[in-house]
Sequence to fold (308 residues):
Amino acid sequence: MYVVTGASGHTGSVVARTLLERGERVRVLLRDEAKAEPWRRWGAEVVLADLRDVASLSLSMVGAQGAYLMVPPPVPSSVGVLEACWTVVDAMRRAVDESGLPHFVLLSSVGAQHSNGTGLVKTLNLAERELGSLGRPMTIVRSAYFMENWGAGLSSVVSSGLLPSFLGPSDREVHMVATRDVGETAAGMLREPTLGRRLVELTGPEDYSPSDVAATLRRLLGRPVSVEEHMPAAQIPMLMDMGFSEELANLLAELNDATNRGRLTFEQSGLVVRGWTTLEEVLAGMLRAMGALPHKEAGAAVGTTPSS
Fold:
């Protein structure tokens, strides 16, 4: 049996569904009973748990073959972001230790080898270090920039033909990956546990620039799309106008700056894996979900759609 955190999000949902499809027993940890019924229908055991609660976390891991662990992303209005992250990471570390969990897969990010200057990614450096301090078999999946992140700007693309971007210059390629590939890779690593510390750095089939994203949207929509590049100085006030707290806006701006400076890249001390889902598949799936593209006929392959 495998334990999956974040089952209502982008990657955790894929991990859990992939394991169920392969005939594995799965226990999903959820915070909200309203999201539980679909998982029960699909055959998963549902446990309502707070990731900060050591006792419930530990109990959920007892007897499991492995667990998929992720630090939940903060909601836009969050304050005390780093402190909240530390609380979750500490609870996970103690739960893994107390439960005797034999192996776990931790979702991390490219660039998590750095302890500072990476915005929110520094929380994953902390998670890697704290959970790694147990000396238990662990697999770290350092994901590239989620292709689904571009979904936040698709309404602007559809209405005005402008693709907002904090990444620049617009022709610079960065590592990107589909969340479907992250989840399926993590599920595979759970079923093939390591004996020590295994590092997997995961990106998509190729790297893409913001200009590549705009060009792909032009092909899909059949009309002009151009990149609306926002200067670094404008990021924090823009994010705050969008409802982000000042603290989180600063962390996100620092993360974007680290990406632009090439700091969020592979450490290359582990296994570098390229996924299989293309940017076009992901963007097409999100456009269909918002009604901007017709749905494919039944039985046709459908690209990844967003879900965190």
